[in-house]
Protein backbone atom coordinates (compact mmCIF):
# COMPACT_ATOMS: atom_id res chain seq x y z
CA UNK A 1 0.00 0.00 0.00
CA UNK A 2 1.47 3.32 -1.03
CA UNK A 3 1.46 6.52 0.94
CA UNK A 4 -0.52 9.47 -0.49
CA UNK A 5 2.57 11.37 -1.45
CA UNK A 6 3.73 8.49 -3.62
CA UNK A 7 0.44 8.02 -5.41
CA UNK A 8 1.92 9.60 -8.55
CA UNK A 9 5.39 8.74 -9.84
CA UNK A 10 7.99 11.39 -9.24
CA UNK A 11 6.42 12.88 -6.13
CA UNK A 12 8.05 13.21 -2.72
CA UNK A 13 6.64 13.40 0.79
CA UNK A 14 7.06 16.81 2.39
CA UNK A 15 6.36 17.24 6.10
CA UNK A 16 5.05 20.58 7.29
CA UNK A 17 4.43 21.91 10.79
CA UNK A 18 2.03 24.82 10.74
CA UNK A 19 2.04 27.65 13.28
CA UNK A 20 -0.82 29.05 15.32
CA UNK A 21 -1.22 31.87 12.82
CA UNK A 22 -1.29 29.68 9.71
CA UNK A 23 -3.53 26.85 10.80
CA UNK A 24 -5.26 27.51 14.09
CA UNK A 25 -7.01 24.49 15.47
CA UNK A 26 -9.93 25.10 17.76
CA UNK A 27 -9.60 22.93 20.87
CA UNK A 28 -11.47 22.78 24.16
CA UNK A 29 -9.40 25.69 25.42
CA UNK A 30 -7.17 27.75 23.11
CA UNK A 31 -5.26 26.48 20.09
CA UNK A 32 -2.34 24.21 19.43
CA UNK A 33 -0.07 23.34 16.47
CA UNK A 34 -1.26 21.11 13.67
CA UNK A 35 0.64 18.42 11.77
CA UNK A 36 -0.03 17.98 8.09
CA UNK A 37 1.64 16.61 4.99
CA UNK A 38 1.11 17.13 1.27
CA UNK A 39 2.14 15.56 -1.98
CA UNK A 40 4.25 17.92 -4.05
CA UNK A 41 6.05 17.85 -7.37
CA UNK A 42 9.88 17.67 -7.54
CA UNK A 43 10.06 21.34 -8.44
CA UNK A 44 8.41 22.36 -5.19
CA UNK A 45 10.44 20.12 -2.88
CA UNK A 46 12.73 22.10 -0.54
CA UNK A 47 16.40 21.53 -1.03
CA UNK A 48 16.89 19.88 2.37
CA UNK A 49 14.30 17.23 1.37
CA UNK A 50 15.59 16.58 -2.14
CA UNK A 51 17.00 13.22 -3.19
CA UNK A 52 20.59 14.54 -3.18
CA UNK A 53 20.42 15.83 0.38
CA UNK A 54 18.17 13.11 1.76
CA UNK A 55 19.13 11.75 5.16
CA UNK A 56 17.28 8.46 4.59
CA UNK A 57 19.06 5.43 6.01
CA UNK A 58 21.24 3.56 3.56
CA UNK A 59 19.16 0.50 4.31
CA UNK A 60 15.88 2.21 3.43
CA UNK A 61 13.77 0.33 0.92
CA UNK A 62 13.03 1.75 -2.51
CA UNK A 63 9.76 3.64 -2.98
CA UNK A 64 6.81 1.27 -3.42
CA UNK A 65 5.12 1.10 -6.83
CA UNK A 66 1.93 3.04 -7.54
CA UNK A 67 -1.13 1.36 -6.02
CA UNK A 68 -3.30 -0.79 -8.22
CA UNK A 69 -6.94 0.03 -8.85
CA UNK A 70 -7.98 -3.00 -6.79
CA UNK A 71 -6.10 -1.94 -3.68
CA UNK A 72 -8.32 -1.72 -0.60
CA UNK A 73 -6.39 1.31 0.69
CA UNK A 74 -5.81 3.97 -1.91
CA UNK A 75 -4.31 7.39 -1.51
CA UNK A 76 -7.53 8.96 -2.75
CA UNK A 77 -9.16 7.89 0.52
CA UNK A 78 -7.04 10.42 2.37
CA UNK A 79 -5.97 13.07 -0.13
CA UNK A 80 -8.22 15.43 -2.07
CA UNK A 81 -6.77 17.27 -5.11
CA UNK A 82 -7.29 21.02 -5.11
CA UNK A 83 -7.34 23.52 -7.95
CA UNK A 84 -3.56 23.80 -8.14
CA UNK A 85 -2.98 20.09 -8.40
CA UNK A 86 -1.54 19.81 -4.88
CA UNK A 87 -2.93 17.08 -2.66
CA UNK A 88 -3.35 18.33 0.88
CA UNK A 89 -4.38 16.58 4.08
CA UNK A 90 -5.24 18.71 7.09
CA UNK A 91 -6.30 17.61 10.54
CA UNK A 92 -9.17 19.79 11.67
CA UNK A 93 -11.17 19.78 14.86
CA UNK A 94 -14.83 20.83 15.15
CA UNK A 95 -15.59 24.24 16.62
CA UNK A 96 -17.06 22.68 19.74
CA UNK A 97 -16.87 19.34 21.47
CA UNK A 98 -18.68 17.61 24.31
CA UNK A 99 -16.90 17.58 27.69
CA UNK A 100 -14.48 14.66 28.28
CA UNK A 101 -16.98 12.72 30.35
CA UNK A 102 -19.29 12.53 27.34
CA UNK A 103 -16.60 11.12 25.04
CA UNK A 104 -17.63 8.14 22.98
CA UNK A 105 -16.60 4.74 24.30
CA UNK A 106 -13.51 3.40 22.49
CA UNK A 107 -14.44 0.89 19.80
CA UNK A 108 -14.64 -2.60 21.26
CA UNK A 109 -14.47 -5.84 19.35
CA UNK A 110 -17.70 -7.69 18.56
CA UNK A 111 -18.42 -10.15 21.31
CA UNK A 112 -20.47 -13.27 21.39
CA UNK A 113 -20.57 -16.33 23.60
CA UNK A 114 -17.84 -14.83 25.76
CA UNK A 115 -15.87 -14.45 22.57
CA UNK A 116 -13.23 -12.19 21.13
CA UNK A 117 -12.65 -9.60 18.48
CA UNK A 118 -13.01 -10.70 14.90
CA UNK A 119 -9.82 -10.47 12.87
CA UNK A 120 -10.20 -8.24 9.81
CA UNK A 121 -8.68 -9.13 6.50
CA UNK A 122 -6.86 -6.95 4.05
CA UNK A 123 -9.64 -7.20 1.53
CA UNK A 124 -12.41 -6.25 3.95
CA UNK A 125 -10.77 -3.40 5.90
CA UNK A 126 -12.86 -0.28 5.47
CA UNK A 127 -12.01 1.65 8.66
CA UNK A 128 -12.36 5.40 8.65
CA UNK A 129 -9.19 7.50 8.34
CA UNK A 130 -7.30 8.25 11.53
CA UNK A 131 -8.31 11.90 11.16
CA UNK A 132 -12.01 11.02 11.33
CA UNK A 133 -11.49 8.85 14.39
CA UNK A 134 -9.73 11.60 16.33
CA UNK A 135 -12.22 14.29 15.29
CA UNK A 136 -14.91 12.37 17.16
CA UNK A 137 -12.95 11.52 20.28
CA UNK A 138 -11.55 12.99 23.49
CA UNK A 139 -9.40 10.88 25.76
CA UNK A 140 -9.28 11.13 29.53
CA UNK A 141 -6.33 8.71 29.88
CA UNK A 142 -3.29 7.74 27.83
CA UNK A 143 -4.45 4.12 27.73
CA UNK A 144 -7.83 5.14 26.28
CA UNK A 145 -6.10 6.95 23.42
CA UNK A 146 -3.65 4.09 22.86
CA UNK A 147 -6.47 1.51 22.75
CA UNK A 148 -8.50 3.58 20.28
CA UNK A 149 -5.52 3.87 17.93
CA UNK A 150 -4.70 0.16 18.19
CA UNK A 151 -8.31 -0.84 17.49
CA UNK A 152 -8.44 1.51 14.50
CA UNK A 153 -5.30 -0.04 13.03
CA UNK A 154 -6.50 -3.58 13.70
CA UNK A 155 -9.60 -2.81 11.64
CA UNK A 156 -7.34 -1.85 8.73
CA UNK A 157 -5.12 -4.92 9.09
CA UNK A 158 -2.12 -3.27 10.78
CA UNK A 159 -0.55 -3.61 14.22
CA UNK A 160 0.35 -0.47 16.19
CA UNK A 161 2.65 -0.43 19.20
CA UNK A 162 3.96 2.17 21.64
CA UNK A 163 7.42 3.67 21.26
CA UNK A 164 9.40 5.93 23.61
CA UNK A 165 6.61 6.33 26.16
CA UNK A 166 7.69 8.33 29.21
CA UNK A 167 6.03 9.69 32.35
CA UNK A 168 6.45 13.18 33.77
CA UNK A 169 6.64 14.10 37.45
CA UNK A 170 2.87 14.39 37.68
CA UNK A 171 2.46 10.80 36.48
CA UNK A 172 1.12 11.78 33.04
CA UNK A 173 2.30 9.69 30.09
CA UNK A 174 3.36 10.85 26.66
CA UNK A 175 4.84 9.06 23.69
CA UNK A 176 4.60 7.82 20.12
CA UNK A 177 2.38 5.08 18.72
CA UNK A 178 4.04 3.58 15.66
CA UNK A 179 3.60 0.64 13.34
CA UNK A 180 5.11 -2.66 14.45
CA UNK A 181 7.22 -2.54 11.28
CA UNK A 182 8.72 0.86 12.00
CA UNK A 183 12.46 1.12 12.47
CA UNK A 184 15.55 0.31 10.44
CA UNK A 185 14.95 -1.82 7.36
CA UNK A 186 17.08 -4.93 6.86
CA UNK A 187 16.76 -6.72 3.50
CA UNK A 188 15.60 -10.31 3.62
CA UNK A 189 18.70 -11.38 1.71
CA UNK A 190 20.93 -10.24 4.59
CA UNK A 191 18.96 -12.36 7.07
CA UNK A 192 18.19 -15.45 5.04
CA UNK A 193 17.39 -18.38 7.26
CA UNK A 194 17.27 -16.27 10.43
CA UNK A 195 14.05 -15.84 12.38
CA UNK A 196 14.54 -12.30 13.58
CA UNK A 197 11.89 -9.68 14.09
CA UNK A 198 14.16 -7.15 12.44
CA UNK A 199 13.60 -8.89 9.11
CA UNK A 200 10.00 -7.62 9.21
CA UNK A 201 10.99 -3.96 9.57
CA UNK A 202 10.15 -1.72 6.65
CA UNK A 203 10.82 1.77 8.07
CA UNK A 204 7.05 2.27 8.13
CA UNK A 205 6.35 6.00 8.66
CA UNK A 206 3.03 5.57 10.55
CA UNK A 207 3.34 7.72 13.67
CA UNK A 208 0.91 9.24 16.18
CA UNK A 209 1.91 11.28 19.24
CA UNK A 210 -0.13 11.26 22.47
CA UNK A 211 0.46 13.93 25.11
CA UNK A 212 -1.36 15.45 28.08
CA UNK A 213 -2.92 18.86 27.58
CA UNK A 214 -2.90 20.89 30.79
CA UNK A 215 -5.35 23.39 29.33
CA UNK A 216 -8.09 20.80 28.97
CA UNK A 217 -7.07 18.11 31.44
CA UNK A 218 -7.32 15.49 28.67
CA UNK A 219 -4.94 13.64 26.36
CA UNK A 220 -4.39 15.18 22.93
CA UNK A 221 -3.39 13.19 19.85
CA UNK A 222 -1.33 14.53 16.94
CA UNK A 223 -1.19 12.54 13.71
CA UNK A 224 2.28 12.86 12.23
CA UNK A 225 1.77 10.25 9.49
CA UNK A 226 -1.28 8.04 9.12
CA UNK A 227 -0.22 5.88 6.17
CA UNK A 228 1.89 2.71 5.94
CA UNK A 229 4.47 1.74 3.32
CA UNK A 230 3.52 -1.93 3.30
CA UNK A 231 0.46 -4.07 2.68
CA UNK A 232 -1.93 -5.06 5.50
CA UNK A 233 -1.35 -8.43 7.15
CA UNK A 234 -3.01 -11.23 5.25
CA UNK A 235 -3.83 -13.04 8.51
CA UNK A 236 -3.95 -10.68 11.46
CA UNK A 237 -4.69 -13.53 13.87
CA UNK A 238 -1.20 -14.93 13.24
CA UNK A 239 0.37 -11.80 14.75
CA UNK A 240 1.49 -12.41 18.34
CA UNK A 241 0.70 -8.88 19.57
CA UNK A 242 -2.81 -9.00 18.14
CA UNK A 243 -3.41 -12.39 19.75
CA UNK A 244 -2.23 -11.04 23.13
CA UNK A 245 -4.84 -8.28 22.93
CA UNK A 246 -7.64 -10.50 21.67
CA UNK A 247 -7.08 -13.37 24.09
CA UNK A 248 -8.19 -11.16 26.97
CA UNK A 249 -11.73 -11.25 25.58
CA UNK A 250 -12.31 -15.01 25.75
CA UNK A 251 -14.94 -15.86 28.33
CA UNK A 252 -15.33 -18.93 30.58
CA UNK A 253 -17.54 -20.69 28.02
CA UNK A 254 -14.67 -20.87 25.52
CA UNK A 255 -12.30 -22.07 28.26
CA UNK A 256 -14.70 -24.90 29.17
CA UNK A 257 -15.08 -25.85 25.51
CA UNK A 258 -11.31 -26.00 24.99
CA UNK A 259 -10.95 -28.13 28.13
CA UNK A 260 -13.59 -30.63 27.04
CA UNK A 261 -12.20 -30.93 23.49
CA UNK A 262 -8.67 -31.37 24.82
CA UNK A 263 -9.84 -34.39 26.85
CA UNK A 264 -10.90 -35.95 23.53
CA UNK A 265 -7.26 -35.76 22.37
CA UNK A 266 -8.02 -33.34 19.55
CA UNK A 267 -5.20 -31.31 18.03
CA UNK A 268 -4.97 -27.52 18.37
CA UNK A 269 -6.16 -27.05 14.80
CA UNK A 270 -9.11 -29.40 15.32
CA UNK A 271 -10.14 -27.60 18.52
CA UNK A 272 -9.97 -24.22 16.77
CA UNK A 273 -12.06 -25.58 13.89
CA UNK A 274 -14.69 -27.02 16.25
CA UNK A 275 -15.01 -23.75 18.18
CA UNK A 276 -15.24 -21.80 14.93
CA UNK A 277 -18.10 -24.01 13.79
CA UNK A 278 -19.92 -23.80 17.13
CA UNK A 279 -19.40 -20.04 17.42
CA UNK A 280 -19.09 -18.58 13.90
CA UNK A 281 -19.09 -15.06 15.34
CA UNK A 282 -15.75 -15.78 17.04
CA UNK A 283 -12.42 -15.67 15.23
CA UNK A 284 -10.08 -18.10 16.99
CA UNK A 285 -6.62 -19.28 15.93
CA UNK A 286 -4.95 -22.53 16.95
CA UNK A 287 -2.36 -20.42 18.83
CA UNK A 288 -5.23 -19.02 20.90
CA UNK A 289 -6.14 -22.57 21.82
CA UNK A 290 -2.57 -23.16 22.96
CA UNK A 291 -2.73 -20.04 25.12
CA UNK A 292 -6.03 -21.10 26.72
CA UNK A 293 -4.71 -24.59 27.48
CA UNK A 294 -1.72 -23.03 29.22
CA UNK A 295 -4.03 -20.86 31.32
CA UNK A 296 -6.08 -23.93 32.22
CA UNK A 297 -2.95 -25.77 33.39
CA UNK A 298 -2.10 -22.79 35.61
CA UNK A 299 -5.64 -22.63 36.98
CA UNK A 300 -6.33 -19.20 35.51
CA UNK A 301 -9.92 -19.50 34.37
CA UNK A 302 -12.03 -16.31 34.17
CA UNK A 303 -14.81 -16.42 36.74
CA UNK A 304 -17.22 -14.40 34.62
CA UNK A 305 -17.34 -12.63 31.24
CA UNK A 306 -15.35 -9.39 31.04
CA UNK A 307 -17.28 -6.62 32.75
CA UNK A 308 -18.44 -3.86 30.44
CA UNK A 309 -19.23 -0.42 31.90
CA UNK A 310 -22.94 0.17 31.97
CA UNK A 311 -24.49 3.50 31.09
CA UNK A 312 -27.93 2.62 32.36
CA UNK A 313 -29.34 4.17 35.53
CA UNK A 314 -28.22 2.01 38.42
CA UNK A 315 -30.37 3.56 41.11
CA UNK A 316 -32.09 6.67 42.27
CA UNK A 317 -31.08 8.17 45.58
CA UNK A 318 -34.19 10.09 46.67
CA UNK A 319 -34.78 11.61 50.04
CA UNK A 320 -35.81 8.96 52.52
CA UNK A 321 -36.72 9.10 56.22
CA UNK A 322 -33.53 7.16 57.05
CA UNK A 323 -31.06 9.57 55.47
CA UNK A 324 -30.81 13.07 54.07
CA UNK A 325 -30.05 13.23 50.32
CA UNK A 326 -26.60 14.09 49.03
CA UNK A 327 -26.34 17.16 46.82
CA UNK A 328 -23.75 18.28 44.31
CA UNK A 329 -21.28 20.74 45.79
CA UNK A 330 -18.46 21.13 48.28
CA UNK A 331 -18.10 18.93 51.36
CA UNK A 332 -15.47 19.18 54.11
CA UNK A 333 -13.87 16.42 56.18
CA UNK A 334 -14.18 18.27 59.49
CA UNK A 335 -11.34 18.48 61.99
CA UNK A 336 -11.60 16.92 65.44
CA UNK A 337 -10.38 19.38 68.06
CA UNK A 338 -8.81 18.47 71.41
CA UNK A 339 -8.07 20.31 74.63
CA UNK A 340 -4.36 21.28 74.48
CA UNK A 341 -3.58 20.18 78.03
CA UNK A 342 -5.51 16.89 78.27
CA UNK A 343 -6.19 15.88 74.65
CA UNK A 344 -9.86 15.41 75.55
CA UNK A 345 -12.48 16.27 72.93
CA UNK A 346 -13.09 20.03 72.63
CA UNK A 347 -16.84 19.92 71.90
CA UNK A 348 -17.21 23.70 71.80
CA UNK A 349 -14.67 24.05 68.98
CA UNK A 350 -16.13 21.04 67.14
CA UNK A 351 -19.61 22.61 67.09
CA UNK A 352 -18.31 26.10 66.24
CA UNK A 353 -16.31 24.72 63.34
CA UNK A 354 -19.26 22.77 61.89
CA UNK A 355 -21.51 25.83 61.96
CA UNK A 356 -18.88 28.04 60.32
CA UNK A 357 -18.48 25.60 57.44
CA UNK A 358 -22.18 25.21 56.58
CA UNK A 359 -22.72 28.97 56.80
CA UNK A 360 -19.93 29.37 54.22
CA UNK A 361 -21.98 27.35 51.71
CA UNK A 362 -20.88 23.75 52.16
CA UNK A 363 -23.60 21.20 51.37
CA UNK A 364 -22.39 18.41 53.66
CA UNK A 365 -19.81 17.40 56.28
CA UNK A 366 -17.67 14.32 56.83
CA UNK A 367 -17.06 13.53 60.49
CA UNK A 368 -14.19 11.28 61.61
CA UNK A 369 -12.51 11.08 58.23
CA UNK A 370 -8.78 11.32 57.55
CA UNK A 371 -8.69 14.99 58.58
CA UNK A 372 -10.77 14.13 61.66
CA UNK A 373 -7.99 11.92 63.09
CA UNK A 374 -10.34 8.94 63.22
CA UNK A 375 -7.45 6.55 63.87
CA UNK A 376 -6.66 8.50 67.05
CA UNK A 377 -10.19 8.25 68.44
CA UNK A 378 -12.13 5.51 70.20
CA UNK A 379 -15.51 4.32 68.95
CA UNK A 380 -17.30 6.20 71.73
CA UNK A 381 -15.48 9.39 70.73
CA UNK A 382 -16.45 8.92 67.09
CA UNK A 383 -20.10 8.58 68.04
CA UNK A 384 -19.87 11.59 70.37
CA UNK A 385 -18.35 13.80 67.65
CA UNK A 386 -21.07 12.73 65.20
CA UNK A 387 -23.81 13.56 67.71
CA UNK A 388 -22.24 16.96 68.52
CA UNK A 389 -21.98 17.81 64.81
CA UNK A 390 -25.64 16.91 64.23
CA UNK A 391 -26.71 19.05 67.17
CA UNK A 392 -24.65 21.99 65.90
CA UNK A 393 -26.17 21.84 62.41
CA UNK A 394 -29.73 21.60 63.75
CA UNK A 395 -29.13 24.52 66.11
CA UNK A 396 -27.73 26.67 63.29
CA UNK A 397 -30.79 26.07 61.10
CA UNK A 398 -29.31 23.40 58.78
CA UNK A 399 -31.28 20.25 59.68
CA UNK A 400 -31.23 19.01 56.05
CA UNK A 401 -27.42 19.01 55.78
CA UNK A 402 -26.19 15.39 55.61
CA UNK A 403 -23.38 14.00 57.76
CA UNK A 404 -21.05 11.31 56.42
CA UNK A 405 -19.12 9.38 59.06
CA UNK A 406 -15.79 7.66 58.55
CA UNK A 407 -16.86 4.20 59.67
CA UNK A 408 -13.78 2.12 58.84
CA UNK A 409 -12.70 -0.26 61.59
CA UNK A 410 -10.81 -2.88 59.59
CA UNK A 411 -13.31 -5.73 59.96
CA UNK A 412 -16.82 -6.21 58.59
CA UNK A 413 -18.24 -6.68 62.09
CA UNK A 414 -16.59 -3.58 63.58
CA UNK A 415 -17.48 -1.34 60.62
CA UNK A 416 -21.13 -2.40 60.69
CA UNK A 417 -21.38 -1.93 64.46
CA UNK A 418 -19.98 1.61 64.19
CA UNK A 419 -22.43 2.38 61.37
CA UNK A 420 -25.32 1.25 63.58
CA UNK A 421 -24.25 3.51 66.44
CA UNK A 422 -23.46 6.43 64.12
CA UNK A 423 -26.95 6.29 62.62
CA UNK A 424 -28.48 6.69 66.07
CA UNK A 425 -26.17 9.68 66.63
CA UNK A 426 -27.37 11.46 63.47
CA UNK A 427 -25.12 10.23 60.65
CA UNK A 428 -26.62 9.67 57.21
CA UNK A 429 -23.86 7.83 55.26
CA UNK A 430 -20.83 5.67 56.00
CA UNK A 431 -17.46 6.39 54.36
CA UNK A 432 -15.47 3.14 54.23
CA UNK A 433 -11.80 2.50 53.37
CA UNK A 434 -10.42 -0.73 51.95
CA UNK A 435 -9.03 -3.15 54.56
CA UNK A 436 -5.23 -2.94 54.59
CA UNK A 437 -3.65 -4.21 57.82
CA UNK A 438 -3.06 -7.67 56.34
CA UNK A 439 -2.22 -6.35 52.90
CA UNK A 440 -0.30 -9.43 51.75
CA UNK A 441 -3.37 -11.60 52.47
CA UNK A 442 -5.86 -9.25 50.82
CA UNK A 443 -6.55 -9.61 47.10
CA UNK A 444 -9.10 -7.96 44.82
CA UNK A 445 -11.82 -10.50 45.52
CA UNK A 446 -11.34 -10.12 49.28
CA UNK A 447 -11.74 -6.35 48.96
CA UNK A 448 -14.91 -6.72 46.89
CA UNK A 449 -16.22 -9.23 49.41
CA UNK A 450 -15.48 -6.86 52.29
CA UNK A 451 -17.37 -3.92 50.78
CA UNK A 452 -20.24 -6.18 49.72
CA UNK A 453 -20.60 -7.63 53.22
CA UNK A 454 -20.51 -4.15 54.81
CA UNK A 455 -23.08 -2.83 52.32
CA UNK A 456 -25.34 -5.83 52.95
CA UNK A 457 -25.44 -5.25 56.72
CA UNK A 458 -24.95 -1.50 57.12
CA UNK A 459 -28.01 0.57 58.06
CA UNK A 460 -26.29 3.54 56.40
CA UNK A 461 -25.68 3.82 52.64
CA UNK A 462 -21.98 3.21 51.89
CA UNK A 463 -19.54 5.52 50.11
CA UNK A 464 -16.34 3.76 48.99
CA UNK A 465 -13.28 5.72 50.10
CA UNK A 466 -10.35 5.24 47.67
CA UNK A 467 -7.35 6.75 49.46
CA UNK A 468 -4.21 4.69 48.66
CA UNK A 469 -1.92 6.80 50.87
CA UNK A 470 -3.59 5.62 54.08
CA UNK A 471 -4.25 1.95 53.18
CA UNK A 472 -0.74 0.73 52.36
CA UNK A 473 -1.02 1.78 48.72
CA UNK A 474 -4.16 -0.23 47.84
CA UNK A 475 -5.68 1.63 44.89
CA UNK A 476 -9.07 0.42 43.70
CA UNK A 477 -9.31 0.52 39.90
CA UNK A 478 -12.35 1.68 37.95
CA UNK A 479 -13.47 -1.89 37.17
CA UNK A 480 -13.72 -2.72 40.88
CA UNK A 481 -15.48 0.55 41.70
CA UNK A 482 -18.02 0.04 38.90
CA UNK A 483 -18.58 -3.50 40.09
CA UNK A 484 -19.19 -2.29 43.67
CA UNK A 485 -21.55 0.40 42.38
CA UNK A 486 -23.98 -2.32 41.31
CA UNK A 487 -24.80 -2.92 44.98
CA UNK A 488 -27.99 -1.01 45.89
CA UNK A 489 -26.52 0.21 49.21
CA UNK A 490 -23.31 1.61 47.68
CA UNK A 491 -24.13 5.18 46.70
CA UNK A 492 -20.80 6.82 45.86
CA UNK A 493 -17.02 6.91 45.75
CA UNK A 494 -14.49 9.44 47.03
CA UNK A 495 -11.43 9.66 44.74
CA UNK A 496 -8.68 10.91 47.04
CA UNK A 497 -6.33 9.00 44.72
CA UNK A 498 -6.45 12.14 42.54
CA UNK A 499 -7.06 10.15 39.35
CA UNK A 500 -9.54 12.18 37.31
CA UNK A 501 -9.49 9.61 34.50
CA UNK A 502 -10.73 6.97 36.93
CA UNK A 503 -13.34 9.39 38.28
CA UNK A 504 -14.57 10.08 34.76
CA UNK A 505 -14.90 6.39 33.88
CA UNK A 506 -16.85 5.59 37.04
CA UNK A 507 -19.05 8.68 36.65
CA UNK A 508 -19.93 7.65 33.09
CA UNK A 509 -20.63 4.03 33.99
CA UNK A 510 -22.85 4.91 36.97
CA UNK A 511 -24.57 7.91 35.34
CA UNK A 512 -23.48 9.93 38.39
CA UNK A 513 -25.21 13.02 39.68
CA UNK A 514 -23.74 16.35 38.50
CA UNK A 515 -24.60 20.01 39.11
CA UNK A 516 -26.47 19.86 35.79
CA UNK A 517 -28.58 16.76 36.39
CA UNK A 518 -29.69 14.26 39.01
CA UNK A 519 -28.62 11.25 36.97
CA UNK A 520 -28.85 8.01 38.93
CA UNK A 521 -28.05 9.74 42.21
CA UNK A 522 -24.66 8.01 42.45
CA UNK A 523 -22.00 10.40 43.82
CA UNK A 524 -18.50 10.64 42.33
CA UNK A 525 -16.53 12.84 44.75
CA UNK A 526 -13.16 14.41 44.09
CA UNK A 527 -10.95 14.08 47.16
CA UNK A 528 -8.91 17.32 47.13
CA UNK A 529 -9.80 20.93 46.54
CA UNK A 530 -6.84 21.54 44.23
CA UNK A 531 -8.70 19.70 41.46
CA UNK A 532 -12.18 21.05 42.09
CA UNK A 533 -12.43 22.30 38.51
CA UNK A 534 -11.05 19.06 37.11
CA UNK A 535 -13.71 17.11 39.01
CA UNK A 536 -16.43 19.24 37.44
CA UNK A 537 -15.02 18.82 33.94
CA UNK A 538 -14.72 15.05 34.43
CA UNK A 539 -18.39 14.68 35.34
CA UNK A 540 -17.98 14.54 39.13
CA UNK A 541 -20.73 15.13 41.68
CA UNK A 542 -18.85 17.05 44.34
CA UNK A 543 -15.56 17.50 46.18
CA UNK A 544 -14.68 16.42 49.72
CA UNK A 545 -11.93 18.95 50.27
CA UNK A 546 -9.62 19.11 53.29
CA UNK A 547 -8.70 22.68 52.35
CA UNK A 548 -12.36 23.66 52.82
CA UNK A 549 -11.69 23.61 56.58
CA UNK A 550 -9.64 26.78 56.07
CA UNK A 551 -11.00 28.42 52.90
CA UNK A 552 -14.55 27.09 52.39
CA UNK A 553 -15.85 30.21 50.63
CA UNK A 554 -13.17 30.04 47.93
CA UNK A 555 -13.96 26.36 47.26
CA UNK A 556 -17.67 27.13 46.96
CA UNK A 557 -16.93 30.15 44.76
CA UNK A 558 -14.93 28.06 42.26
CA UNK A 559 -17.76 25.52 42.11
CA UNK A 560 -20.46 28.14 41.61
CA UNK A 561 -18.51 30.10 38.97
CA UNK A 562 -18.14 26.99 36.83
CA UNK A 563 -21.76 25.90 37.19
CA UNK A 564 -22.87 29.44 36.30
CA UNK A 565 -20.92 29.27 33.05
CA UNK A 566 -18.10 31.63 34.10
CA UNK A 567 -15.26 29.29 33.21
CA UNK A 568 -12.46 31.84 32.87
CA UNK A 569 -13.15 33.27 36.31
CA UNK A 570 -13.37 29.76 37.75
CA UNK A 571 -10.02 28.80 36.20
CA UNK A 572 -8.31 31.91 37.56
CA UNK A 573 -9.64 31.32 41.08
CA UNK A 574 -8.80 27.59 40.92
CA UNK A 575 -5.13 28.48 40.40
CA UNK A 576 -5.13 30.61 43.55
CA UNK A 577 -6.93 27.86 45.46
CA UNK A 578 -4.46 25.20 44.31
CA UNK A 579 -1.45 27.24 45.43
CA UNK A 580 -2.94 27.76 48.88
CA UNK A 581 -4.09 24.17 49.23
CA UNK A 582 -0.59 22.88 48.46
CA UNK A 583 0.84 24.75 51.45
CA UNK A 584 -1.75 23.09 53.70
CA UNK A 585 -1.33 19.66 52.11
CA UNK A 586 2.39 19.63 52.83
CA UNK A 587 1.80 20.56 56.48
CA UNK A 588 -1.08 18.05 56.80
CA UNK A 589 -3.31 18.00 59.91
CA UNK A 590 -1.02 20.00 62.19
CA UNK A 591 -0.66 22.71 59.55
CA UNK A 592 -4.41 22.88 58.87
CA UNK A 593 -5.17 23.24 62.58
CA UNK A 594 -2.54 25.96 62.84
CA UNK A 595 -4.13 27.87 59.92
CA UNK A 596 -7.58 27.59 61.54
CA UNK A 597 -6.21 28.91 64.83
CA UNK A 598 -4.34 31.74 63.13
CA UNK A 599 -7.37 32.99 61.17
CA UNK A 600 -10.40 31.93 63.25
CA UNK A 601 -9.16 31.79 66.86
CA UNK A 602 -9.56 28.06 67.61
CA UNK A 603 -7.83 24.89 66.46
CA UNK A 604 -5.28 23.61 68.92
CA UNK A 605 -2.98 20.70 68.15
CA UNK A 606 -3.30 17.15 66.82
CA UNK A 607 -3.23 14.15 69.11
CA UNK A 608 0.06 12.41 69.63
CA UNK A 609 2.00 10.86 68.01
CA UNK A 610 1.54 13.73 65.50
CA UNK A 611 3.90 16.57 66.33
CA UNK A 612 3.26 20.27 66.78
CA UNK A 613 4.57 22.68 64.15
CA UNK A 614 7.84 24.50 64.52
CA UNK A 615 8.13 28.24 63.85
CA UNK A 616 9.70 27.83 60.41
CA UNK A 617 6.87 25.60 59.15
CA UNK A 618 4.24 27.90 60.65
CA UNK A 619 5.76 30.89 58.87
CA UNK A 620 5.83 28.96 55.57
CA UNK A 621 2.14 28.12 55.93
CA UNK A 622 1.22 31.74 56.60
CA UNK A 623 3.07 32.83 53.48
CA UNK A 624 1.68 29.98 51.38
CA UNK A 625 -1.98 30.72 52.15
CA UNK A 626 -1.73 34.51 52.25
CA UNK A 627 -3.10 34.99 48.73
CA UNK A 628 -6.03 32.60 49.06
CA UNK A 629 -6.98 33.88 52.52
CA UNK A 630 -7.16 37.43 51.15
CA UNK A 631 -9.76 36.15 48.70
CA UNK A 632 -11.53 34.13 51.41
CA UNK A 633 -11.94 37.17 53.64
CA UNK A 634 -13.23 39.27 50.75
CA UNK A 635 -16.14 36.89 50.05
TrEMBL record:
<dbReference type="Pfam" id="PF00701">
    <property type="entry name" value="DHDPS"/>
</dbReference>
<feature type="region of interest" description="Disordered">
    <location>
        <begin position="46"/>
        <end position="124"/>
    </location>
</feature>
<feature type="compositionally biased region" description="Pro residues">
    <location>
        <begin position="96"/>
        <end position="110"/>
    </location>
</feature>
<feature type="region of interest" description="Disordered">
    <location>
        <begin position="307"/>
        <end position="326"/>
    </location>
</feature>
<dbReference type="InterPro" id="IPR002220">
    <property type="entry name" value="DapA-like"/>
</dbReference>
<protein>
    <submittedName>
        <fullName>L-threo-3-deoxy-hexulosonate aldolase</fullName>
    </submittedName>
</protein>
<dbReference type="InterPro" id="IPR013785">
    <property type="entry name" value="Aldolase_TIM"/>
</dbReference>
<feature type="compositionally biased region" description="Polar residues">
    <location>
        <begin position="78"/>
        <end position="87"/>
    </location>
</feature>
<dbReference type="GO" id="GO:0008840">
    <property type="term" value="F:4-hydroxy-tetrahydrodipicolinate synthase activity"/>
</dbReference>
